[in-house]
Design a protein that fits this description.
With 241 residues, the protein is an alpha+beta fold. The chain is built from five helices and 16 strands. Strand 14 and strand 15 form a beta hairpin. The chain is elongated.
Length: 241
C-alpha cells in the first residue's frame, strides 16, 4: 500500500524552498496566462496553443497525488519530493518539476517547457479541468450579449460559466473547443458546440473585442477522412454591452 508522504520529511527535503510549506502546494491551479491571452486577443486556439499544453493541476501532498488536464485528456501521477524539488511522475516516464514562486505554481516538463499557474478561486468539487473551463468561460464570454444580426435579432444572450446559454434561438447548452479531436477538426478556426436536449452541432466562431460572429460549420473533408470544419454561412452576430 502506498504510504502518505510524511510532511516532516518533505519539509526537510524542501528546506531550500524558502517559506513554503508542503501543504501550500495543495489544491487546484489554473493556467491564467492562457485565459488572459484568449480574452485579450479574442483568438482562442492561438492563445491555448501558445500558453499550453497544460491548463489545470490538482495536487494532494498527503496522498502523493498529482493530476493535470490539457483540456481534452487527464493524467494522474505520483507526487514526491526529490532533490529539493517536487516531482510529479506519470505513466510512461513523463515527469514535471513543481515549485512555488510567491503565490504561483511553476512547472517544468522533461523537455524544459515552463508554465505558470495560479490557485483557482472557487474550485469546489469541480472535476479535473472544470475550474479552468469555468474561469475561461467567465472571462471570455461573460456578460450580456445582444443579437444584432440573425434569428432573434434584439434578444439578450448570456453564456453562463456552467455551459448553459440563454437567449439564442434553439440551443440552451454550449461548450468551447479547447483541445483534442474538435480542435483538430477545426484547424486554425475557433469552434464551439451548441445543443438542446443533447442534440447539437459544431459551429465556427470569431470573437474580436466585444463582437462575436457565429458561423455554420462546413465539412470540407472527404467521406473517409477526418472532418475538416470551415466557416459557412454566418448564423449570428452578437455584441457585448
Amino acid at each position: 500500500m502506498r504510504q502518505a508522504l510524511p510532511l516532516a520529511l518533505a519539509a526537510l527535503l524542501l528546506s531550500g524552498c524558502a517559506s513554503h510549506k508542503p501543504e501550500d502546494f495543495n489544491g487546484t491551479w489554473i493556467n491564467q496566462n492562457a485565459i488572459k491571452a484568449a480574452t485579450k486577443s479574442g483568438n482562442l486556439r492561438q492563445a491555448l496553443n501558445e500558453h499550453g499544453p497544460v491548463f489545470e493541476w490538482k495536487l494532494d501532498v498527503a496522498n502523493q497525488q498529482a493530476s493535470f488536464s490539457n483540456g481534452f485528456e487527464a493524467a494522474d501521477g505520483q507526487l514526491s519530493a526529490n532533490d529539493k524539488q517536487w516531482l510529479a511522475t506519470f505513466q510512461g516516464g513523463q515527469t514535471e518539476q513543481l515549485a512555488l514562486d510567491g503565490n504561483e505554481l511553476k512547472t517544468t516538463d522533461s523537455s524544459g517547457v515552463e508554465q505558470t499557474f495560479v490557485r483557482a478561486k472557487q474550485p469546489g468539487n469541480a472535476p479535473l479541468g472544470g475550474s479552468f473551463e469555468k474561469a475561461l468561460y467567465q472571462a471570455y464570454l461573460g456578460g450580456e450579449w445582444k443579437i444584432v444580426e440573425g434569428q432573434g435579432t434584439g434578444s439578450k444572450v448570456q453564456f453562463a460559466d456552467n455551459g448553459s446559454v440563454t437567449g439564442l434561438p434553439g440551443p440552451d447548452r454550449y461548450a468551447l473547443c479547447l483541445a483534442g479531436d474538435c480542435a483538430s477538426m477545426g484547424g486554425s478556426n475557433d469552434s464551439l458546440w451548441l445543443e438542446r436536449n443533447q442534440r447539437g452541432a459544431p459551429f465556427i466562431f470569431k470573437r474580436e473585442g466585444d463582437t462575436l460572429e457565429i458561423f455554420q460549420a462546413v465539412n470540407r473533408a472527404k467521406p473517409d477522412e477526418m472532418p475538416q470544419l470551415a466557416a459557412g454561412n454566418r448564423q449570428w452576430v452578437l455584441e457585448r454591452d
